[in-house]
Amino acid sequence: MASELDVRARLQRAGQEHLLRFCAELAPGPRAALLAQLEPLEPEALREHCRRAAAACARPPAPAPDLAARLRPLPPERVGSASGVAPQTRRLWEEEGFHQIALNKVAVLLLAGGQGTRLGVTYPKGMYQVGLPSQKTLYQLQAERIRRVEQLAGERYGTRCTVPWYIMTSEFTLGPTAKFFKEHDFFHLDPNNVVMFEQRMLPAVTFDGRAILERKDKVAMAPDGNGGLYCALADHQVLEDMERRGVEFVHVYCVDNILVRLADPVFIGFCVLRGADCGAKVVEKASPEEPVGVVCQVDGVPQVVEYSEISPETARLCAPGGGLLYNAGNICNHFFTRDFLQMVTREFEPLLKPHVAVKKVPYVDEEGNPVKPLEPNGIKMEKFVFDVLPFAKNFVAFQVLRGEEFSPLKNADSAERDNPSTARRALLAQHHRWALQAGAHFLDAHGARLPEQPSPPGSGEPPAICEISPLVSYSGEGLEVYLQGREFESPLILDVDTARTLQA
Ligand SMILES: CC(=O)N[C@H]1[C@@H](OP(=O)(O)OP(=O)(O)OC[C@H]2O[C@@H](n3ccc(=O)[nH]c3=O)[C@H](O)[C@@H]2O)O[C@H](CO)[C@@H](O)[C@@H]1O
């Protein structure tokens, strides 16, 4: 156990000795907990972290003044499109993706260390269920898409293949996520192929550079951002694990997009055939204000400018042919080669600049009373996963259709958008479209046919409720055999058992 003397000396070197100001009055248990929390903080790193936070805060919280002049859209030769190409080109990409999956060269990596503050839940977002007829959670949908894509690749190449699932968690999400997976028997995935690892935490800091005590016996800590991935990969030898398994390509994605296509063969195949070391899926931005990062170039170098760091004027600029000039919305879906990730962890990670978020951080006052601030009082420093893009030798973006691939769950239902209802409707509208395309007809409770036009994206509930298990179809494929020319009463839940019965 860490000695108080030792920890005090380290904190003195970091200029943060105030963190021990209640130590003498703590009972042995809480005191040990506080010392254990403080012990791993490296004095020099802590000093630098607090200094940087205060310095960043001294600057006005506005986009860099010269940013607009340095921005350009991505040149067209760097952008592929899933929908705007000839079907045979798309098939070629897909075939390449399946081939790499069949060779066990593809892994998926979930960023799941966030706290889901905007959604307002105290448990990890992946455990959330948006009210689908099947009541599946985001984690279950993701697990089943992995199983299906393994199956599809395996069938094409006559092999049994594995897409390992790496899950980055944080102090907040590791325990509940691990428990949830165990309780659900890893959704029938082999637990050896589900690798959870934890990202680092950093202290929240006051505007004048002092780490904040949340309680007398606890420092206010927050995960170091989804760009904490790169330190976490090194901390837990994750790339070595990938190497042992023969993984060459990694699809990194965020937890909250209900339509996410894990290990998407089309995206993987496109990136591999283009010889990319780094890629990002994008959708056309819905509006200038939409809170998505913009994939673009700064000083001629591809990167993502986060929604919090672009000015409203720049976001509203129009392209000469109409539409937004900066319309490539980042959906937090990235492709990396393992070699590129290796270079990042070895060389580039220290060059990533943290971003500053000013937040309300609960703290104890000088008398030790807990305070819930009404105004922002603290700084959290985060690295972003996409900040490695400028180090790529060959970056590509890949544009996909929003209605097919992007509906994020960010907010509670009280918000207008990106909430549980919009996510549920996006998935049900997609499955309704897939069913109609496969030749299904839907009836109401009185046997009358329901309308057969697919509902436009963003509209209300589809005319018929149809939910298709990812174990039956990954992206709408293979449904004719169950649905063609048949009538179904809404709601239809097409799970594996129903599919088997229909096929028989
Ligand atoms: C930095 C980043 O990627 N921003 C993207 C993110 O924004 P947004 O602000 O929505 O990002 P979130 O805070 O939701 O985090 C994205 C993902 O990173 C994970 N996470 C977050 C913090 C952390 O310390 N550890 C961690 O693992 C979250 O669990 C989540 O899976 O998604 C949007 C699309 O939905 C994109 O347009 C944004 O460009």
From TrEMBL:
Family, as annotated: Belongs to the UDPGP type 1 family.
Key words of the record: Nucleotidyltransferase, Transferase
Organismal lineage: Eukaryota, Metazoa, Chordata, Craniata, Vertebrata
Q: Report whether Protein biosynthesis shows up as a keyword of the record.
A: no
Molecular function (GO) terms for this protein are: UDP-N-acetylglucosamine diphosphorylase activity
Q: Name one GO biological process term.
A: UDP-N-acetylglucosamine biosynthetic process
Top-level taxon: Eukaryota
Q: Which N-terminal residues, if any, form the signal peptide?
A: none
Q: What is this protein called?
A: UDP-N-acetylhexosamine pyrophosphorylase-like protein 1
Organism equals Eschrichtius robustus (California gray whale)
Q: Which residues cross the membrane?
A: none
